[in-house]
Amino acid sequence: MFISSMAAFAFSRIAFPGRNVLFLVFLSGLMIPGQVTIIPQFILMSKLGLVDTHLALILPGLINPFGIFMIRQTMMTISYSYDEAAYMDGASRLWVFLKVILPMSFPAVAVTSVISFIAHWNDFFRPLIFLNSFEKMTLPIGMTALTGAFGTGNLSAILAGVTLSLIVPLLFYIFGQKYLLDGITAGGLKL
Q1: DSSP character for 81?
Q2: pLDDT average, residue stretch 161-168
Q3: How far apart (Å, rounded) are the C-alpha atoms in residues 100 and 178?
Q4: Closest by alpha carbon to 65, among 42, 16, 32?
Q5: From CA 78, how far away is CA 72, in angstroms rounded?
Q6: Which positions ≥6 away from 123 have C-beta within 8 Å?
Q7: Is pLDDT at 17 greater than 60 in this prediction?
């Protein structure tokens, strides 16, 4: 989320040549399904020697086009007078980002964090492609391993695993519920 919020700050607050074209390139990442780009990602990760490591899952997830779009839209609604006042007080661009704009757009960051966390927590496709060893498999892949060959696994072990896999997202949602509601309601208001 930190990388997405920095990119959103750059797209919303910093005027540089080609900003709109580059933002459209990022938005095109939302229009291309992940299944289309999995073969080039696998080739790249294999050439980097990252297949069967967790870095093969982490590196492509660092850039989140949906997060950049959502946080940028929130930052665009914040008045530029806050930036100007901070710059007149001698603040740097990093200070304005960290101390002024980011706290004001925290509900959008919280909503994007929860959506991104749930998507990565439940991801089955990419770990199935990139991870080979049983020691490194993620929870959804491990849940399929519990079913056993031909679905002959122990049903009580499978249900216990499902119950345990629900605890972390449930806690994440419970503690972030206030920010989720603030972010969703702020997204529907015209300022």
Answers
A1: H
A2: 87
A3: 21
A4: 32
A5: 10
A6: 57, 138, 140
A7: yes
